[in-house]
Amino acid sequence: MTAIYTKGVDRTMHEFHNETFLNAQRQLDYVAELMNLDAGIHERLRYPRKALIVSVPIKLDNGHTKVLAGYRVQHDQTLGPTKGGIRFHHEVNLGEVAALAMWMTWKCSLLNLPYGGAKGGVCCFPEEMSLNELERVARRYTTEILSIIGPEKDIPAPDMYTNEQIMAWIMDTYSNFVGYAVPGVVTGKPISVGGSMGRHEATGRGVAYTVKKALEKLKITTDTPTAAVQGFGNVGSISAKYLHQLGCKIIAVTDVQGGVYNPEGIDIPNLLAYVKERGTVVGFANCDKIENSELIALPVDILVPAALANVITKENADKVQCKILAEGANGPVTPEADEILNQKGIFVIPGILANSGGVVVSYFEWVQGLQHLFWSEEEVVQKLHFLLGKAFEEVYDVHTEKSVSPRTAAMIIGVGRVANAKMLRGLYP
Ligand code: NAD
Question: Does the beta carbon of 156 sit less than 6 angstroms from any atom of ligand 1?
């Protein structure tokens, strides 16, 4: 490692250094050593290629002006334009966005998509904001990052607390600046402005599909595997919906306001309707209350963390009792916890595989937009399952052949493809 050290401390791009970014870097360092990765390539992959911090001033409904911090980080552009979601959340910061951008690079590469990784976010409390305020945030943030996004440069998508409507505002703002409609600037748009069939469900559908593959590989043949899901937004609720359709018995779910538990199985179709109306799982019929800390420790076959990063740590990992842990969220398991879960024999489907359905169908949306030819939902789902199934098999083969965890296997493939392309392209100038 040729990092510049000051009094024994690595100060290289220390602006990014927070827990989540250092975790992402440690995962890379670990596989780099295993793969005997070229030191120069490793060094280049440890840091984002570009990061932009912007002020997002908005007029609040009460007439006051507030300045929010906005970020867009592009980790790597070796395989194509960068791609990654935009999150509105009060914990968004540069290090977290940089970590998420790095994971997007490995995810796109693992799925063989012609993209590098990016991520963006605005630090705010979206639940406390009106629709008009959210629109002003989305439009001003887009304006501030306009010079570095575009269908051939960097293509945002939804992430925590952003959705189809926010993507439509981003697309509209960008299009107004350039003077013509550019649907390809974002994915995860509503169908009526160039979105793809199946994009809304893609991430959760992919989580359930990778769980199904894992159940088959691990020969868990029970008719009704049990499952618990943390987070009931886009990823959590749709994962629960498709796991339920697969025949799983979902016994616990939580969201930011609380959680519900029923050991006989929660009525998921009715819960989905309830959440649509009430905005929370709390108070759903025939259920007891449950906390996140209890949900994580339930003796279920399948655990799906689908909310925040760093929720399974060295403090609680030994309490986890599931057989399969599917990372619906990005980075829910810290590296120390990962080691503990591996020692316990838990099959962890890493986020770069488990939640990759979203970026796969985002890629389909981008392709459909560029060629102005749209596919049916059946075509989208069939192509999604094909790419996910292929990536799952590749990961599983490396996992068994090299006796490494599924995460390490996925990283070896993802990092390896980017490194190979970087080697071929060389270092400019
Ligand atoms: P979302 O905004 O739709 O939902 C977030 C959910 O998390 C909500 O139900 C919220 O109540 C819940 N939540 C927040 N804090 C919580 C807490 N402390 N405990 C329990 N629940 C809590 O967001 P999303 O799009 O579903 O994203 C969730 C995760 O999935 C994020 O890590 C995101 O990066 C990842 N992800 C999303 C996509 C996508 O396509 N949306 C794709 C890949 C990965």
Answer: no
